Amino acid sequence: MTNAQSEAVVRPARTVRGSVQLPGDKSICHRYAMLAGIADGPSRLENYSTGADCASTLGCMRAMGVSWDRKADGQNVIEVQGRGLALAAPKTSLDCGNSGSTMRMLSGIVAGQSFTGEMIGDESLSRRPMERVIKPLTAMGAKIESQQGKPPLRITGGSLKGIDYKMPVASAQVKSCLLLAALFADGETRVEESIRTRDHGEVALRAFGVQLQRKHMGGGSEVRIRGGQRLRGIDARVPGDLSSAAFFLCAAALFPDSQLTVPNLLMNPTRARLLDILMQMGLRISVTQLEEIHGEMVGSLQVEGGQLKGAIIAGADSAALIDEIPVLAAIAPFTEHGIEVRDARELRIKESDRISAVATNLRKMGAQVDEREDGLKIPGGQSLNGAELESFGDHRIAMAFAVAALKAEGETAIQGAEAAAISYPEFFDKLEDLSTR
Ligand code: S3P
Q: Is residue 255 within 8 Å of residue 284, measured between CB atoms?
């Protein structure tokens, strides 16, 4: 984060009530911005994410000659002039900021270009592993220099060839990276995952007119895609971000008499596991106005609080809930039976070490927490005290603990709260709006 550190003070609330319309889903916005840039003709993206991460993707596309405008109409509309598959050599480094999604997915497009591009990131991103994209992109024929598998990445693209790749880690970013690179490759690329991850890359490619074959295989999937296909621009409204909605859903879950409406929310089945888990835990959720927009399911949620039981999150669920685990863990002390998270080692290499960050903050609030290499066990039936907490420069940690603070005894101060702007700059204002005191 380059901004000055700022503190957010969160006071306890009596309940949570109201309606919240979320900015466009971060995962989808990154992909739409990239695909719109390499499409033939213009795209119009409405409800584009207001977060800094998706702005990083747009910034990188501009650096490679894609022109786009943000319309001043309050609807967060971005109009992108696609320049087709061949982008312009950037005159500066491609600055991915804090965004792992930007670096990992865009590297697939840079690898297909006939120039050398350097991708850089902030301090947090510079610590994150990139071998997961370097290895398969190198196998496709790209030349990539890095700092022992970490950013900056210097990518010399060129004539790629299709590969058959079984992903060793469950990562939708890596899957999308390879599908993007495959567009520039000779022949067919096949990507296999043994645990199914979010499928926005596959869905978005089809929306932009690309043909690909998908098959479910056990708990995983396989995607086949041929190189050389052209993309056509789209006119789309991006569904509200489900991972940002998670903070409000968990806030509502804290109070038996809470009531929340969330219109126009992403309901993609590879992302919606959170809703099942919260319902199993005792939150009442009903969905209306389900529709499909460019292959993505969208609906309106009506949510009512109840008594919160507890949950065990393990195996494929840990991958499906990877971005929502911090907030589920932050409210775990208030559940009846507690929450146990297993098989979530990936959390240690996100924007911060999220296992350690959650354990540290919960302990500062007086909770008992068992921290494990691949997860956490947090007993239920505990109360929390307001405390001085840190965001660890991580947007999801800042927001998760603002939620826990609503039910603590006394005020909580979160240092580095500006990190929320990475995905959701309006978060603290909206949380305040919805909280009844
Ligand atoms: C994302 C995939 C996940 C997630 C990230 C967004 C995506 O990362 O944590 O916030 O848009 O594909 P991994 O692919 O590293 O699991």
A: no
Pocket of ligand 1 (CB under 6 A): 27, 101, 171-173, 176, 198, 322-323, 346
Residue 263 phi/psi, 5-degree rounding, is -75, 160
Query: Going by CA atoms, what residue is nearest to atom 10 of ligand 1?
Result: 323
Catalytic residue selected from 73, 323, 343, 429: 323
**Do 313 and 328 meet the contact criterion of CB atoms below 8 Å apart?**
yes
Q: Is the dihedral of CA 131, 125, 394, 284 positive or negative?
A: negative
pLDDT digits (tens, 9 = 90+) for 196-225: 999 999 999 999 999 999 999 999 999 999
Dist. CA 164–CA 415, nearest whole Å: 46
Residue 323 annotated as catalytic:
yes
- Between the CA of 104 and the centroid of ligand 1 the distance, in Å, is 10
pTM attached to this predicted model: 0.98
Cα 384 to middle of ligand 1, angstroms? 30
Residue 362, SS3 per DSSP: helix
Give tens-digit pLDDT for 86-136. Answer: 999 999 999 999 999 999 999 999 999 999 999 999 999 999 999 999 999
